[in-house]
Design brief:
Structural class of chain A: mainly alpha
Largest sheet of chain A: 2 strands, antiparallel
CATH architecture of the largest domain in chain A: Orthogonal Bundle
Strand order of the largest sheet of chain A: 1-2
Largest interface: A-B, 39 and 39 residues
Number of domains of chain A: 2
Strand content of chain A: under 5%
Distance between the termini of chain A: 60 Å
CATH topology of the largest domain in chain A: Tetracycline Repressor, domain 2
Oligomer: homodimer
Number of strands of chain A: 2
Helix content of chain A: over 70%
CATH superfamily of the largest domain in chain A: Tetracycline Repressor, domain 2
Radius of gyration of chain A: 20 Å
Chain lengths: 202, 202
DNA sequence: AGAATGAGCGAACAGTTGTAAGCTAAAGTG
DNA sequence: CACTTTAGCTTACAACTGTTCGCTCATTCT
């Protein structure tokens, strides 16, 4: 096996070890370098061959989580073309992601208000991707100033994220309630915004 | 000084020490018993005379934070009577609290999605007080099913909380923008909800 | 007065942590 | 082939952590 190949392999082992140790009871901040190294199957000091410190690993995790989120968006758009209902499909796709990759979502959720400014910034950037795409969509579908489209998109993303957070602590039989509640909230937003100076296009 | 009096005094010293160590870079989880004891001016072992462990202290902090929040609500209501504008006054009062007691707000913000289920539950309960009061208000002012009033109140509280979180990382000159953005979002919600089967009362 | 209580202390323990230094051995290079 | 590079290892250290134990001594109770 080539050297670079092997290096990449243990780098992934470290990343996977970190992800797998995240849980409802364990945040990234409470991971230790040694524990991660142990699970990755390397000596503690070998960790430094791949990351300068735990922060660098953390930022990598946030990046990867953001990537997954964006792939999710693409998947949602495909579903929308077949399905029709934009809001419902988007939320359902998102809820599936949250419940299926809860550790990944938890990372974003926690580091959004965590103790590292760098982490908070990284998460905020990932979320802004969401907001920007949604705002773009709103601008296409309606006639309204950029500023308002953005404020609307932000509100929507916040509400959806929060529904995801609720789902983490809720029993599965409540998922459909959380979904429909969020749909209602988002419809209120769109209707309210449409009534305040915005017009449906065409 | 009486015994009970003195005990209460050092108990407060511990609580205050814990609050004062919370900051943008230090979450409750990263506080150590020894550090807190040091700042409170007692030996590490004396801590146990007042709390069984750090978790018990943490729950106390959350309780106190919730108390401050409810006092804030009362203060807001007084202002509303003089001022008139419900939404604007509420949000402005809240933003003042957030910027003036940022460590307290940060505690709630972080433990809401933290690693301890007990903490998450405690914070959720405090926030539900907010939601319940607001939902009650909405029911009085409008005719709508309890269920919808609650969903609307929840959405509003989420958006206001999020604005507070944004303020923590924003320079002060952006506070007024954050406030007005949130006002817009809340007005959309009320208008949208009013349009969907709800009617203004009287 | 005398006994009981209990807040606070110092010393000590076992466990963990991050990280530095220096070695080995395999892969890459000329 | 000899030479360099480097991922990974072992050992080691100093700094912390939470917690147990047994003591003191001022307050409180009888």
């Amino acid at each position: 096996m080539s050297r670079a190949e092997q290096k990449e392999r243990t780098r992934r082992a470290i990343i996977n070890a970190a992800f797998s140790q995240l849980s409802a009871d364990k945040s990234f901040a409470s991971l230790s370098l040694r524990e991660v190294a142990r699970e990755a199957g390397i000596a503690p000091t070998s960790f430094y061959r791949h990351f300068a410190d735990m922060d660098e690993l953390g930022l990598t995790l946030v990046d990867e989580a953001g990537l997954m989120l964006r792939q999710l968006m693409r998947q949602a758009r495909q579903r929308i073309e077949k399905n029709g209902s934009v809001i419902r499909t988007s939320i359902e796709t998102f809820m599936e992601f949250v419940t299926g990759n809860s550790n990944v979502f938890r990372l974003l959720l926690r580091e959004r208000s965590g103790t590292s400014a760098a982490f908070r910034g990284a998460v905020a950037r990932e979320i802004q991707h969401f907001v920007a795409e949604l705002a773009e969509y709103l601008r296409k579908e309606t006639i309204c100033p950029d500023e308002l489209a953005r404020a609307q998109a932000e509100a929507m993303v916040i509400l959806v994220f929060h529904a995801g957070a609720d789902a983490l602590d809720a029993p599965p039989e409540q998922y459909s309630y959380l979904t429909s509640r969020t749909i209602t909230q988002l419809r209120w937003l769109t209707h309210g915004a449409a009534g305040s100076g915005r017009k449906p296009k065409g």
